[in-house]
Input
Amino acid sequence: MNIGLQEIFTEANRILLETYGPGAEFRKGQYEAIEAAMTKKRVLVVQKTGWGKSLVYYICTKLNRRKGQGCTMVISPLLILMDNQMEMAGKMGLKCAALNSTVKDPAERKSILDRLAEDQLDMLFITPETLLKEETQERLPGIRIGLFVIDEAHCISDWGHEFRLDYGQIGKIIRKQFSNVAVLATTATANDRVVDDLKAQLGESVYISRGPLTRESLHIQVLPLGKRTERYAWLLDNLNKIPGTGIIYCLDHRDCDHLTEFLCRNGIPVMSYYSDEKKEEQNAEAIAAFQENRIKAIVATIKLGMGYDKGDVSFVIHFQCPSSIVAWYQQIGRAGRNLKDAYVFLMTGREDDRINEYFIKTAFPTRKEMESVLEIINKTDGITKYQLYTKVNMRPARIDKAVDFLLNEGAVRREKAGGRQCLFPTVNRYVFRGDHYDQIRRIRHMEMQEMKDLVNTEGCLSRFAVNCLDDHEAGDCGKCANCTKQDILPDLSVSEESRTKAIRFVSTRLYEILPRKQYPDRSRIPENCLLQPGWCLSKYGDAGYGELVEQGKYPPAGMPRRFDDRLVIRAADVISSWAKENGIRHITCVPSLRSDLVMEFTRRLAQRTGLTFADLLAKSEAPQQKTRENSTFQYENANNSFSVKDGPVPEKLILVDDVVDSKWTLTVCGIKLIEYGCREVYPFALADSSHLEE
Amino acid sequence: MSRNAEAITIFCSHLCMAEGILPFEPKEWGDLAARLMTLNYQPGDLLDFSLQDFQDILSCTEDEASRMMRLIDRSASLRFELEKYESMGIQVITRADAEYPKQLKKKLGNACPPLFYAAGDPALLNRDCVGYVGSRDVAPSDIEFTKKTVAATAGKGYAVVSGGAKGIDSISASSAMAEGVAVIEYLSDSMQRKMRDSGLVQEIRDGRVLLMSVVVPTAGFNVGVAMMRNRYVYAQSSGTVIIRSDKGKGGTWAGATENLKHAWCPTFCRDCEYPGNQELIKLGAIPVTDDWDGDVSKYHTEPVKPVEPVRKPEQISMF
Output
């Protein structure tokens, strides 16, 4: 009843020859995977980058379409269709399209879905989030799907290094998918634990194709350079010595921005790429520039990685140590696809552990977070996200995360009611999966340790990595710095001059404080009550001034709470010219009941700058602002606790606080000062403690 | 899901509808299932059929075969839509599933629907139930009587099965909850809308209420479906109590006379001055008053007059 095996064999080989010309042969395992998928099996392909995973599903698609079967849906994190993919599709006469968040035009999205419904497309590349969107879901009934491909399938595993909820949701559907629907899952990076999990998800009868993972083109070297400035200097001196163009990975987007700015200022053309709503356009520009090799490197978070397929990526440099070997191997997999040699540098820094720990810690909502959110939703007959923010004292990002998990676990559901997306309770009983999350955290810690072991190994780096991916057959690569006992490229060095440049760059950087424009209920703050743009000296806890701020607030035992004179000197430098430009003659500070730390600092600052200190604000007893987790609660807390003292108020003034986070304290104090007659309030803070990714 | 359950869902579910998709109606499916049995096939086998197979094995016309292929071709998409409902706690129960209401299969044979959408614990379907039916409009005395009677049947250990509509249906359900017995509601529409009520959601979550629907969770009111679901209430119950019926018209009347004819369960009728009620008692319904002890097990019932079974016993298949 199914298409016969002989027929699959003949046809598959014919398509191969048609595409690649006479003499073309399947790589080991490719044909077997095709046959398994064509006999409606569940297939898992774990093969290294460049093995030819996509050829497998291109041929399946071709075979299916010849038989009049539905299209192939490739679920992929890919944001742009890569040239070589289009090329292969073209050669095979397959029509394909991509649907993801970068397709902004509703008419274009509709047209793609129309063409699918009319059976005019053979293959659709779609991101999980786009596939799960209502707009797409509504159209699915009219679309015949002959084959599901899950690219980067490790993402559907909780045990994968990069579990994503939207992928998890897809995984859930795939797990329950009707047995007559063929599913092909592919990944280049899965260890035994992940393979076992994927196997369980795809059903025990899954056909597995697994091959060696060693990438012959990669030359790997570890660079343990603790200080950021050392790494800046290394990149400045050596980036141009590496042939071609490549990717520099940072753990968070703050580092992407800084590094990009530093390298650009010093004449090395690079651009940054990370996920941020406001950055989509810039991201597209960066990708385009990188595609055309107009920049030396793209400085990115892991957002750029999975599925990113540019054949001539000549190097991948990690500015910080990734969280696991699997993640790292996945990321360096982007290098050297079509090159004989590619260069991989793994830098490690002092901050690596802190950042990775932060990611592990915040990966899952806590029991309390889940229960607080669920309790509110369970009591309502429909509540919007925004209403939820006003009812739960949690950061919006944490509320969002809890809601995402609750949705994923079926404890709540989303439905439009009264024209708005509302959350409703469901009949599914909710159990917090704390043990499961703990187990994942333990594994992630273990993986962090493995990564450190790799950094410290004296053996072959490539072999160490693939062994961790449970490919135990690999031998020494003979190319990494450990195998050759020398740098992987000649003349690598760091000059004193570059070090100085890096140190100067880091220590003179300022962070803008942009005024809030809306109240928590989204109504506009009147134009004349807005703060002026202001400045912040550092990121709280960061090396340099950020560290000094932390020490001032929480000094070592026996030391007084006092901000270091170096902070006064630096702040005075910034403020003096700023005050002069804007004709400001007064300075005040946000008062505190707990200590006179800020007041004492501001007085010293006034003395040094010659500005007049004005004691204008009073504070009443209230909970500490940092215990208020979101705008509604922060605004109310600030609004209830600050007042302006009687007496004259200057027209222009600088308002000082030590640490700025939500900006509600500065905003509220500003509004109150303006109500008392001030015209321009310029905020200034020593450090910004707003969260990394949120 | 078993292969057979998959096939039933793919062939019969009215979820995932688009142009050219024509799911099998209950009777059509019954016929097809019967035909498969005689050919020694199971429904699950259909999923591997090609266009040609449908024509060769089942002697389908090309149009019929195409219709079936189109249904099979929607499998992947259908799964997405099913998941949407499963994530809110609505599952599909097919005739091939062990959870399928046994009483219905036993009493209605092939006339029972190929699948139900269900929210709640299907184990409730194994409880002994008393059905409650009656009009949407109610007088205070109807409410009083319902409460008392539900208390009596609950006292004998019976859960309540009703049609989930306004009036008598919802009063009997809330009385059951007050008495601490479970409720099964065979809805005729709007399952999803009903599940916006956080109180009801809580009852379902705690295993005290089970919602069943033969139409998709988003379906609106439809007279035919509403009539049809009456028979599920009767068939599910060990006895059904008519609280208030019009005479000669309306859903309650139609359902009651149908049950008197088929005798799916003993028919009890509140003995009061309503002409509809009096007429039903004349037709054979067992009169009950507010001092009734609620013991339905004492009664057995036979069809008022011999009727053709809905389908001949030998044709009753498991699908």
Observations:
- Confidence is low (pLDDT under 50) at residues 311-316 of chain B.
- Chain B has two domains: 3-115, 120-298.
